[in-house]
Each structure stands twice: as structure tokens, then as C-alpha cells.
């Protein structure tokens, strides 16, 4: 009975949807609210990077020291993941970019107005609310795209390192056992995409729903600890995704035997 009451209130007051809403089209491309928010996240990162690079000094100030400390700490952590510092440095730029993008997108998702500011439209005779901004990683399309990007890039790096021998990890004519092992590797790479995508989506979407319900039933002061928790979860999820990306890159760039 209580769950039915919560579901009824949630449906009538709060906007929670697994499917992102389309805001407009650019030719054949449908721009959804989650995609639009991701563009804003990229814009924020670019603006911060430009401002930071313009303010670089030979004698660093406090903010520059802080950024350098964070970058050095992240590099040291990725070194333990990759196995050696040179391998970590080789992929650090792309892994750090993935980390920063996911972190900024996650934190933008809990800003006031995200998911609550929008417009109404009539669809199939019913009036529906369309939020202008949606948490990027509460859209499964976005998280699976990141998973596909990481897995494909890891194999591109594998080809760059080992050449055609990289295919030896999946295909061989030596014996049936080796061929079957290669099939399992392919299945494992597909499942890696699913794992990366659903892990990030599940944590962010669940947190968004939790915040919406708590904010509706017990507004103002009570949601504050949960906001702090979501900030922490957003950081942890970004770090986990970046760590798994570094692991994948490091694994497939070891020369095939």
C-alpha cells in the first residue's frame, strides 16, 4: 500500500524516465536532453582547461599546485593499475580525459534545475513534461557508448602495439581448444561493454531516483547528506570507469605470443 502511494505521488509530481526525451533535431540526428547536457559538460571542461592553461606560471600558485597534485596522484594511481609508469604515461591523457568527463557529467547531474526545468508537450493526446537537462549517465545509450569507445580503443591500441598478431588473441588454427578460448575472449569483450555501461548507468540512475524521492517526501534539510553521498558516488564511479579503461588498454598492449 505504501509503495503504491509512493509510486502514485512520484508519477504525478516527479519526472523519472528511463528513456531520454528529444529536444530538437540537427538533420537526422535527434538531440536528447542527456546528449545536450553532455555537450554542456564538454563545454565546461574546455572552458576550465583554457582558463587554467592561460593562467599557468613558472612559479605556481595554490590552485596550480592543487591541480598538479591531483594530476600526479592520479598518475601514480594509474601506474599501479598499468603495472609500470611508462605504460601508464602512454595512456594517461585519454584515461584522465575519460575520468574528468565522467566526473563533471556526474556532478552536473545533481545541480539544481537538472531534470526539473523544462517544458510540456502533448504526445498521443497526453501532456508530458520534458526536462531541458538530464543527468548524462542516467541514459543507458550514453554509458554503453562509453563502454564501446573504451573496448574498441583498447583493441586499436592492441593493433598499434602488436600489429596483425593481435588477432591471435581471438583466432588461431592450431587446435580446437585455442579457437574455443578465442570465442570466449570475444564474448568477454562484449560482456565488458555491457558491464561498463550498466555499472555506470545503474549507480547514477539509482542515485537520481533516490534524490528525487527524498527531496519530494522530506525536502530541504534531509536531502543534504544524500547530495554529499551522490558527490562521492559520482567521483567513485568516474574513478572506477577510468581504472577499468586503463586496465583494458594495458592488457591489450602487451605483445601477443
Structure keywords:
two-stranded antiparallel sheet, 257 residues, disordered N terminus, two-stranded antiparallel ribbon, globular, mainly alpha
Would you kindly provide a written description of the structure presented here, covering whatever features stand out?
- The protein is mainly alpha-helical.
- It has one domain (15-252).
- The protein has helices at residues 2-13, 33-54, 62-82, 85-108, 140-162, 176-217, 223-252, and strands at 22-26, 29-32, 118-123, 126-131.
- The protein has a two-stranded antiparallel sheet with strand order 1-2. Strands 3-4 form a two-stranded antiparallel sheet.
- α3 (62-82) packs across α4 (85-108) and α5 (140-162) packs parallel to α7 (223-252).
- The longest helix is centred in the C-terminal third of the chain and has 42 residues, at 176-217.
- It is globular and about 60 Å long.
- It starts with a helix and ends in a 5-residue tail after the last helix.
- Residues 1-13 have low confidence and may be disordered.
Tally the beta strands.
4
- The total count of helices amounts to 7
- Gyration radius, in Å: 22 Å
Tally of structural domains: 1
Described by strand count, sense and barrel closure, the largest sheet is: 2 strands, antiparallel
Proportion of beta-strand residues: 5-15%
Q: How do the helices and strands follow one another from N- to C-terminus?
A: HEEHHHEEHHH
Mean pLDDT score = 82
Structural class: mainly alpha
